[in-house]
Amino acid sequence: MGEEGASGSEHHRLLSEMRAQNLDMIRFASYRTACKLRFVQKKANLHQVDIWNVIEAFRENGLNTLEPQMEVNVSRLETLISSLYHNLNKRLPPAQQVHAESSSGLLLNWLLSAYSAENTGKIRVFSIKVALATMCAGKLMDKLRYIFSQISDGNGQLVIWRFEDYLREVLALPAAVFESPSFHYSSDLSAKIFVGSQKVTVNDFMDTMMSDPGPACLVWLPLLHRLAGVESVVHPITCDACHRENFSGFRYRCQKCHNFQMCQDCFWRGRIFGSHTNEHEVKEYTSYKSPSKQIGHTLRKSFRCVPEKGRPNIPRFPEEPEKTLNLSHIVPPSPLPSHNGFPESSFMSTQFDVGSMDSRSTTRSPGKYSSSLDSSRYDDEHRLIARYAARLAAEARTVPRHSSRSSMHIPDLGGRAPSEGSLSLDSSRVQRELIAQLEAKNKEIVREIKRLKIQQDLENAALGSEGSSADNPALMSELRALRQRKDELEGHLSSLQDSRRQLMVQLEGLMKLLKNHQASPRSTPNSSPRSTKSPPLTGSLPGTLTSCASSRSAPPTPGSQQLLLGSATELSLGSDMRATFGNSTNALRSSASLTRADRSLRNDLLVAADSVTNAMSTLVRELNSGTVEVFL
């Protein structure tokens, strides 16, 4: 009850909004009907769904396999309509997507009110196809072609009773917008449109339905498409009736009043101004041309001696549907009195119309459809395939028997076709060649597999040897011992470096005392220029530099790089100290007042610096040798 109330409220809301547009004030029934249907089309967002999208939705939801007279329930119709809008949202950008639930609910309720008058909750398949194909967007020519595919037979000719059914369904749309008094169905409509019992092809149908004027009961149909095409056309003039500027839609010009032009709203509702009346003849325009262009067009027409022939706007289509491909020459003849294994009756009954735009069979009449026909067809196909396979096996067995006969084959047969035995021999030869090629490829593949297997085994063996060496406990224990020795040497080196830092501090203090002693005034009077050179006290320096160079030749470890850098810096500092002490020695020698105690102190300092440098060089060399052993 709640769903029925909601559906009824949506339908009433749609009708109330349509009444608010004041469309009933339009004087002409065809324009009034077209405007109302256009309003419903835009409210349901069907103006964004093309005819080809509708046909694709029919195929996705299986309506092309159902018979036109079959009825479907509301749930299946709702699924079809929802798929239309969901596929539409996939094609639209996010900012322009429609509300699928509200649009599908509105369209569903409107279709049920139009085609399910008895509230049975069911609707015919043909009613759905006609309604959606008419109300969707697209070219009128494409819609009429689809309609003709639904109401024609296998020979591409119109079936009159199906055309009458189409008129009944399509005229239910004006009745749904309360225009049934103007456009209603009667039993003699088809006879008025197609007079006599002549054969109507697709071209005849298109010429009649798209002529101007067309059938009186369907005059609103082309007008609906014209109305959709002129909604975006803007006329840069002023309406002489309502004085509105830059109006859109149709433009009407009076043929009696000078330069009197009106918008579509004023003309449809009969508004007049000045000397113009509604009895005057007017001309309808769907576009605007400036006066200069109109004068040029008139001059070009006047200069032509022979008027142009009207170009046919409707293309020509094949009057007969495309025939199915005849494959009877491929299948061997069957001994049964049938066509390719099928009985003649079943074969003729399975012919279908390939011109039908939703691949629906149109040769069968309503009330004669059954699933047993399809099952019997599939059984006949299986029997035909089995018989064909047995015949091929029999021909393969008879190849040796005909081999001698094939060796005596004469090329010129006098224009006759080759015998069945020669054909079987040729097919057997081709089969043998194909088998030989496949066997050669198989052998090549087997050889490649063996080669890859051997290569994989070698790689696995190499990986296994590396893993075994990595798992050797003796090597691991030796490696651990070397690492422990390295850690001990690094600890010893750090302790020696601490002691060296302390010695360097003491040496710097002593050097300051020595410099202060040299700069004291007591030593200046006693200085003498006749001083002899002191013995070379830097004899250990070359050895120290050599040891430093040898230690740098070994690859240092990451942990000992900073130590080597520190040792090199300190060696340079020791050299600077030694040079300072040498200079001070020359100064002391030139001083006559230098005491023996000062000489002994200087010698002791130089000896201590050399011993520290030698100890550091030895320790660095030992550490580098141990590091190299660890890496080896």
From TrEMBL:
GO cellular component: cytoplasm; dystrophin-associated glycoprotein complex; synapse
Keyword field: Coiled coil, Cytoplasm, Metal-binding, Zinc, Zinc-finger
InterPro entries: Distrobrevin, EF-hand-dom_pair, EF-hand_dom_typ1, EF-hand_dom_typ2, KCMF1/Dystrophin, Znf_ZZ, Znf_ZZ_sf
Biased composition (Polar residues): 346-365, 541-562
Entry-linked Pfam families: EF-hand_2, EF-hand_3, ZZ
UniProt region (Disordered), positions on chain: 339-376, 399-425, 517-562
Highest taxon of source: Eukaryota
Location in the cell: Cytoplasm
GO molecular function: zinc ion binding
Domain called ZZ-type: residue spans: 234-290
Main localization of the protein described in the UniProt heading: cytoplasm
Biological process annotations from GO: modulation of chemical synaptic transmission; muscle cell cellular homeostasis; synaptic signaling
Low complexity composition bias: residue spans: 520-536
Family stated for the protein in its record: Belongs to the dystrophin family. Dystrobrevin subfamily.
Protein name in the entry: Dystrobrevin
Gene behind the chain: LOC113209188
